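Notebook p. 47: complex prediction with 2-deoxy-2-amino glucitol-6-phosphate.
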Amino acid sequence: MCGIVGYIGPKQAAPILLDGLEKLEYRGYDSAGIAVCDGDDVTISKAVGKLANLKAKTDNGNSITGTKGIGHTRWATHGKPTENNAHPHCSERFVLVHNGIIENEEALRRKYLKNAEFYSDTDTEVIAHLLQKFTDDGESTAVAIQHMISEVEGSYALAIIDKNDPDVLYAVKNKSPLLIGSGDGFNMIGSDAMAMIAHTNNFYELNDKEYVVITKDSVDIYTCYGKKIERNTYVAELDVSDTEKGTYPHYMLKEIEEQPTVIRKILKEYSDDDGELTIDPDILKDIRSCDKIYIIACGTSYHAGIVGKQFLEKISGIPTEVCIASEFVYNMPLLSKKPLFIFISQSGETADSRAVLVKVKEMGYKTLTLTNVKGSTLSREADHTLLLYAGPEIAVASTKAYTAQVAVLAILAANIKNSININLNYELSKVSNVIESICDDKDKYSMLAEDYLKDSRNCFYIGRGIDYYVCLEAALKLKEISYIQTEGFAAGELKHGTIALIEQNTPVIAIISQENTNLNTRSNIKEVKSRGAHVMTISTKSLSAQKDQIIINDVHEILTPLVTVVPAQYLAYYAALQKGCDIDKPRNLAKSVTVE
Ligand code: AGP
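Predicted complex, structure tokens below:
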């Protein structure tokens, strides 16, 4: 997953491209580059490492003149993060940037490009040489693009400069996210709206295998057969301030502390005029006619799905199975007779999840997407969408999206059938207040991280039932930003082997929020303590013991994941901070994994 951006208009392009790339850095940040046209001249500048290096190299873009250009921030898939492999990539005539993976690049090299001279290790460079070959053979650029679409297998979002056409930019989309920003006297290309929101709120959505011919005054969209398509723009409900850190040192801390507001926003957005939490009746109709729900997701969204299973089975009474997307595609479980699929995805662009959506739609099943991004691929391609209303989540480590996903799943479950008569409006409002009180205590989490985690090489989160599901998310948070090897473990299972890893001072963090497992988990705490573990306990007030390090005010027992996860988010944040890790952009990761 990488980020691409393009601009054509009256202004100097380089600073606009760099600002756009800054908003896309969360998509990948091991190298970056821009290409800017000034008449017939094209200037290309690339740098390895964070975008700041490219900004320094180009004096924030001021050293490069020209009013048309493209840019790219990379998360390496083919070829190491080197300047040579950084985008843009070129042939003699074409300069382009790419997000995605070309799956048949070797076959294309053999079939068309035996005589081409390659300088990089990337799959992207193949596309530049393909366009060169097809136009050298006499095809127009538009026809060469159609030809390329027909030959290339894989995912791509492309922004293309044709040196023979100084007044035009081209864009092409297939499976990777791409939007066209429409302005007055200028137009833009971007992997998402945030890259362009400082300049316009109006965007064209693109479908797979469509290409676009863009001038400063026009946007013409075509099918892969060259048929022109009339399409209106949509207005993105985004604000530039949503994508800034404000007074926070990191996006992650801002987003942890936005969670009370997000819960309240969800309550507002899902309430009808009578203040009742409601769900689109068409969604309820499809869900009520299924005999089993399959939740498909990855990472944190998968962890939210496991909590969602508790809601859908215990509140709605519908059998539910939660599947890791990348496993489901190649190892589909035996499906029920009338399944319905729920996709949970903050970005709405995760390739593993989208691959399943394509497959189950082909099989004729109903689909619902829970996502934070309106107009995202998983939203547009599902039968139904439920939005998270969490606002842009910039930090790679997902926090507010997780709690938003859990909250929306609870509202969905209670609307399908509220078999436990939970007053969700009241209970979720209470959750919002309890999270606020947890946020007031952050100095404590900083001290606990220093004492338990900063110098540790590993850590365990243990719990039972719904607490165990939170342990999975808590462990992911800690390992993905502090790089401390962490496992979320069923407390009762530890003694069946893994307890062998407990040594003197191994940090073990227990989560206790359920009456029926409180005493059992406390027995497991004794077992690890007797083997030298350094134990920290996160408990809810009514179940707390005096020595528990973190005690959280009570909420409805089935909603405790919404509050017990928050101290774990803080512990991960402070452990990473104290270890000097890059909190918002951890190594090897990207925010939206748009490759399988
Ligand atoms: C979580 O902190 C990670 N950023 C990652 O696991 C993420 O949740 C996963 O890649 C799924 O992303 P999605 O929700 O956008 O589909």
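Notes: Residues 268 and 416 are 19 Å apart (CA to CA). The pocket of 2-deoxy-2-amino glucitol-6-phosphate is lined by residues 298-301, 345-347, 350, 353, 396-398, 476, 480, 592-593 (CB under 6 Å).
Next step: compare against the earlier run before touching the bench.
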